[in-house]
């Protein structure tokens, strides 16, 4: 045997001998104390009787010859043995911790991806978003001429680019599909500091009208369409029928703006020349060393200069803000609230386990007293108890990490697509470090108090206990009660937030949009173009009539229409207009303004909208006739409050290339066309057949049986073979606008449910321990004639006092904290009395169940069995 092996074997024998001597010593001390000796006398007599030098200083480094690592290893081994003796408690604690740590880790991974990782571009802190501002609108897009002036006159931007988004039909030698695209100006990719991974981006010549139509594809799309990204270079694709040559492929993960999968040059189509047409988003890259505040000052000077030069820019300003805030700002409050909520769940779990540890410490009083009698100091006991807590938290952390992997996958697949960077959620090294730190912190958090309080041992009283049962001192009981009250308070805070969000979502889901959408389904379609970029309006009108006629003749179809854009899913465009006979204001900012859509004859019938005045569109309203329009009630109240609008004529200033007056022929009810959480606004409907040359796509609306969908698909593809046909139920389209609210409400409700369950378990656990501790007392009372109902009421009363105190603490904390939810609520105030009353009643019911079960067990105690211990 080599020297190292002999040394290890010697150490093993030493430890086995020490453990054996220790066991004999503990038995002897316990017998001597039971015979009436004090702890000091018993320890001294036992040591003298054994006479073993190993026992002169229990736990000293000289006695064992161990170093700090040996002591830690001994603590760990002893902790594992202790936890193994109570598998039910150990597994319960690990499961509760795993749940809390797992949910926190999964939520942290989502927050890290969406809020903490920054934008995936070089020097993302230098990227800014720019808007125009006015007295009429807080923030609005920029006009084409203003954007060019900003780009040419600024001194703080390294690059400045405009962009917009659209959804088009992509087709070619592959299955056609609808994709989001970015329509971007020159310098767009340079602004982001990102070049093509394969091929190149647009040249200046390709950006100008009359150049060669070129496109850049996203990496994932190019692989999906062509098999390999490199194979796409030089290939032709069609977008809404227009042919583009692929010149480049962007790196994986680049999808700005609006989750774009392809990009085409904006300037190729010509930029609006009107300063009143605010059509463009603007993004910029600050020069090195330039702050946002300095850039704002630069743009303020430009805004003042433009206001003097152009009447359309009078009283308009420029706002410069972080692109990061623009991208993640809408979801930041919800994510931070959810992270705080899941942290509360972990805190409740820690408080729960801390209370269980406290109760467990009272059961281990005899063991801890014996170790103290053997010479272990208070610090030694605290260290051992903390070691056991950290062992629990590490085991819970490992299990929680596994749950987090599953949880992040569920978050990634269940989260709505409009949450930024949701696809980047993953468990990486940073998340692993977070889990490890959280596990150790949790172990210390729930272990410190039981360790400190449990180490206060009265050795003589504890070892003289003859019944074999240990009782808790008043200190332990007070701390245990305080922990349960705190646990209830935390649960109430979380439950109040969940109830407020649930009520808010319920109100939003039951908002009447004004559209009779049940039984209506939709399909997006696009029209074939005649040449490079021109729509033949007459041909589109003929194809539209053919499509509507053929679909209307299918069995069961009640109404069929075309609309652009689809209400609720898109707000549509707004624009200034003039009313015939009324001069336009001298200040263009005071021009009348309204939203507009184009819709065919049966649009209102399809959605069950009655004609309140005048008539609907009819077959005679074609391209050869005077243009007509239908307006909603708000339009009438706003612009014709004292006049009959029928027969009046209006003309949008930027609606068509050659704006014409439209005669108002009808009035329809107001609808929430801009989303369920947004009010109706003044709206104008133009007749679709009179504007068939103004757009490449449309949405087909059909009120009829879903069984007609295969036949409708055949009709659409016969009109344009490149159109992918995907049917959507209109009710689902409306429900989809609430996806973000539904997601955050579900998560907060899930966290609150776990908090409620943990709080109920905490109440149950404390009262169960109380019943066990009071078994002898309750047995004596019942033997002396106490009624079982009195015993039941006694235990229920103790639990009820804890619940009432916890409810009071929770409500006092929940009322001010609920204000943080205000930005997420719809139709509900943060202090809604009905919601808080529901919280109190719900928790009272659950708490009553947690109190009743131990109380019922107490009322069934057999006095004879209980008195056997006396």
Descriptive keywords:
870 residues, alpha+beta, six-stranded mixed beta barrel, 27 helices, elongated
Topology (SSEs and partners):
Layout: H1 3-34, H2 39-50, H3 61-64, H4 68-85, H5 87-116, E1 127-133, E2 142-143, H6 144-153, E3 157-172, E4 174-184, H7 188-191, E5 198-199, H8 204-207, E6 214-217, H9 219-226, E7 236-239, E8 242-249, E9 262-265, E10 278-286, H10 292-309, E11 317-322, H11 323-328, H12 332-363, H13 365-373, H14 378-414, H15 429-454, H16 459-464, H17 474-509, E12 520-526, H18 537-552, E13 559-564, E14 573-579, E15 593-599, H19 603-606, E16 613-614, E17 628-632, H20 633-639, E18 649-652, E19 662-668, E20 683-687, E21 697-703, H21 709-719, E22 727-729, H22 730-736, H23 739-773, H24 775-783, H25 788-817, H26 833-859, H27 863-867
Description of the molecule:
Helices cover 51% and strands 15% of the residues. The longest helix is centred in the middle third of the chain and has 37 residues, at 378-414. The relative contact order is 0.10. The chain has 27 helices and 22 strands. Helix 5 (87-116) crosses helix 14 (378-414) and helix 12 (332-363) packs parallel to helix 23 (739-773). It is of the alpha+beta class. The radius of gyration is 37 Å and the shape is elongated.
């Amino acid at each position: 045997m080599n020297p190292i092996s002999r040394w290890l074997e010697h150490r093993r024998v030493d430890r086995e001998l020490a453990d054996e001597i220790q066991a004999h010593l503990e038995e002897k001390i316990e017998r001597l104390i039971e015979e009436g000796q004090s702890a000091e006398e018993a320890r001294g007599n036992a040591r003298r009787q054994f006479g073993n030098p190993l026992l002169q200083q229990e736990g000293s480094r000289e006695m064992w010859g161990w170093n700090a690592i040996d002591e830690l290893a001994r603590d760990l081994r002893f902790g594992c043995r202790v936890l193994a003796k109570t598998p039910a408690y150990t597994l319960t604690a690990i499961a509760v911790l795993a749940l809390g740590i797992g949910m926190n880790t999964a939520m942290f991974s989502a927050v890290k991806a969406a809020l903490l990782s920054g934008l995936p571009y070089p020097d993302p802190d230098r990227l800014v978003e720019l808007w125009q501002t006015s007295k009429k609108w807080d923030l609005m897009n920029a006009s084409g001429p203003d954007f060019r002036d900003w780009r040419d006159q600024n001194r703080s931007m390294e690059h400045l680019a405009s962009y917009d988004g659209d959804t088009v039909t992509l087709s070619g030698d592959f299955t056609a599909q609808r994709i989001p695209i970015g329509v971007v100006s020159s310098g767009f990719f340079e602004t982001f500091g990102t070049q093509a991974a394969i091929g190149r981006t647009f040249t200046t010549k390709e950006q100008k009208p009359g150049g060669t139509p070129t496109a850049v594809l996203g990496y994932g799309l190019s692989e999906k369409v062509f098999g390999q990204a490199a194979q796409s270079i030089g290939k032709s694709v069609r977008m809404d029928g227009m042919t583009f040559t692929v010149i480049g492929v962007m790196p994986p993960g680049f999808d700005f703006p609006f989750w774009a999968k392809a990009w085409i040059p904006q300037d190729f189509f010509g930029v609006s020349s009107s300063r009143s047409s605010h059509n463009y988003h603007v993004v910029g890259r600050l020069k090195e060393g330039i702050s946002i505040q300095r850039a704002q000052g630069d743009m303020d000077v430009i805004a003042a200069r433009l206001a003097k030069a152009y009447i359309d820019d009078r009283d308009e300003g420029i706002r410069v803000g972080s692109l990061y805030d623009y991208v993640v700002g809408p979801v930041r409050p919800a994510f931070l609230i959810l992270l705080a909520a899941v942290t509360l769940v972990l805190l409740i779990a820690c408080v729960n386990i801390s209370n269980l540890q406290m109760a467990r410490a009272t059961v281990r009083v005899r063991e801890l007293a014996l170790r103290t009698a053997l010479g272990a100091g208070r610090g030694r006991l605290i260290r051992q108890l903390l070691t056991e807590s950290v062992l629990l938290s590490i085991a819970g952390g490992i299990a929680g990490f596994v749950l987090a992997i599953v949880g992040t996958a569920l978050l990634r697949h269940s989260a709505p697509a409009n949450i930024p960077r949701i696809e980047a959620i993953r468990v990486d090294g940073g998340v692993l470090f977070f889990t490890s730190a959280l596990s150790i912190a949790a172990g210390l958090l729930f272990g410190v108090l039981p360790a400190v309080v449990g180490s206060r041992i009265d050795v003589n009283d504890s070892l003289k206990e003859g019944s074999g049962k240990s009782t808790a001192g008043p200190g332990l009981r007070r701390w245990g009660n305080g922990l349960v009250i705190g646990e209830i308070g935390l649960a109430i805070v979380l439950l109040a937030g969940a109830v407020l969000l649930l009520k808010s979502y319920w109100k939003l889901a039951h908002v009447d949009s004004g559209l009779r959408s049940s039984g209506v389904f939709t399909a997006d379609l696009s029209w074939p173009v005649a040449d490079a970029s021109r729509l033949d309006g007459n041909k589109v009108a003929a194809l539209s009539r053919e499509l509507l006629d053929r679909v209307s003749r299918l069995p069961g179809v009640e109404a069929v229409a075309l609309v652009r854009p689809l209400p609720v899913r898109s707000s549509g465009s707004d624009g200034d207009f003039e009313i015939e006979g009324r001069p336009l204001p001298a200040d263009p900012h005071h021009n009348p303004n309204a939203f507009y859509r184009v819709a065919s004859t049966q649009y209102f019938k399809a959605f069950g909208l009655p004609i309140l005045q005048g008539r609907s569109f009819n077959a005679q309203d074609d391209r050869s006739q005077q243009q007509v329009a239908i307006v909603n009630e708000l339009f009438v109240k706003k612009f014709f409050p004292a006049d009959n609008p029928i027969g009046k004529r209006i003309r949008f200033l930027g609606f068509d290339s050659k704006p014409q007056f439209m005669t108002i022929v009808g009035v329809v009810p107001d609808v929430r066309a801009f989303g369920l959480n947004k009010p109706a606004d003044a709206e104008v409907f133009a007749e679709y057949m009179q504007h068939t040359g103004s757009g490449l796509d449309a949405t087909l609306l059909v009120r009829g049986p879903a069984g007609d969908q295969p036949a409708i698909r055949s009709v659409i593809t016969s009109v344009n073979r490149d159109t992918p046909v995907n049917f959507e139920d209109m009710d689902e389209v409306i429900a989809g606008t609430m996806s973000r609210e539904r997601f955050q409400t579900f998560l907060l409700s899930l966290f609150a449910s776990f908090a409620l369950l943990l709080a109920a378990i905490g109440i149950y656990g404390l009262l169960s321990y109380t019943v066990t501790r009071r078994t002898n007392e309750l047995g004596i009372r019942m033997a002396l004639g106490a009624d079982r109902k009195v015993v039941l009421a006694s235990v229920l009363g103790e639990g009820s006092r804890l619940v009432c105190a916890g409810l009071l603490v929770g409500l006092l904390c929940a009322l001010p904290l609920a204000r943080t939810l205000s930005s997420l609520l719809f139709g509900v105030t943060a202090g809604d009395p009905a919601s808080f009353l529901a919280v109190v009643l719900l928790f009272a019911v659950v708490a009553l169940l947690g109190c009743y079960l131990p109380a019922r067990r107490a009322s069934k105690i057999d006095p004879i069995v209980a008195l056997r211990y006396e």
